[in-house]
Design goal:
Low-confidence stretches: none
Order of helices and strands: HEEEHEHEHHEHEEH
Strand content: 5-15%
Strand order of the largest sheet: 5-4-6-7-8
Largest sheet: 5 strands, parallel
Distance between the termini: 71 Å
Shape: flat
Radius of gyration: 26 Å
């Protein structure tokens, strides 16, 4: 996992909160001071919370469950798509599809529809459609790709949700709460941390801040995935070794039987 350095968090502007008049009193434990009408976040607490978050996310990744990243604000979209994509995790960076979690079966149907259009294009069925129908199908495919393309490999509900800006993504938060899905989030001074299971008190508006936090988080997820790969490789090697041992034992037993039979014939 990438090491959490308070100095680097400071350089990335993670400590800048919102205007004091916009604050949420429940964020008080994470606020260090006020400067020029802006709340300053305590970066030592942020660093501790990042480490706690990373440990939990690494375990989830190692268990084989997916972590769904959610960030639809302009300054976070590209960063989330890059970081989540790099560790092969699903993400939503366009509008949150209502019922994405609570009505997951319907969402999966939409993803299957996208796959069926792709099959049509491969087997030649698409070419047999009229020009107008092809246009409609292409538009439908483009819309599905934009909204659901990044979750096309997510065949079951995610093991966790990672959110940037819980005020903006309040629908996603409510759906995860209904299904008891653990919520990890970057929480700014204008938000209520009680809605989140794992809080990272941080500036959720600046791209540098978002990039820094997500770099550390994605690094921890990668560690979890590597641990899972190592465990699988170890199991496979053990299974091969066991198979080899049992085969050798069987051959020895077979030889012993042949020897006994030969000895009996001589007698």
């Amino acid at each position: 996992m990438e090491k959490v350095e308070v100095k680097e968090l400071l350089e990335a502007g993670v400590h800048f909160g919102h205007l004091t008049r916009k604050w949420n009193p429940n964020m008080a434990p994470y606020i260090y001071m006020e400067r020029n009408g802006i709340h300053i976040i305590n970066l030592y607490k942020t660093a501790a919370k990042i480490e706690e978050t990373c440990a939990a996310l690494s375990k989830i990744a190692a268990s084989g469950k997916k972590i769904l990243f959610v960030a639809t604000k302009k300054q976070a979209k590209d960063i989330v798509a890059e970081k989540a994509g790099a560790v092969n995790q699903p993400y939503i960076t366009e509008r949150w599809p209502g019922g994405m979690l609570t009505n997951f079966v319907t969402i999966r149907k939409a993803v299957k529809k996208m796959a069926s259009i792709d099959r049509m294009k491969k087997d030649g069925t698409f070419d047999s459609l009229s020009k107008k129908e092809r246009l409609q199908v292409n538009r439908q495919r483009a819309k599905l790709e934009k909204n659901l393309g990044s979750i096309s490999d997510m065949t079951r509900l995610p093991g966790a949700l990672f959110v940037v800006d819980i005020l903006r993504e309040h629908i996603a938060i409510k759906e995860a709460q209904k299904l008891n899905i653990p919520i990890f989030a970057m929480v700014d001074t204008n938000s209520d941390p009680r809605q989140v299971d794992y809080v990272i008190p941080a500036n959720d508006d600046a791209s540098k801040s978002i990039n820094k936090v997500l770099s550390i988080v994605s690094s921890a997820i990668e560690d979890g995935l590597n641990e899972r790969k190592a465990e699988r490789a170890e199991k496979d090697n053990k299974a091969k070794a066991d198979a080899s041992t049992s085969s050798a034992t069987a051959k020895k037993a077979e030889k012993a039987e042949v020897a006994v039979a030969a000895q009996e014939e001589e007698e």
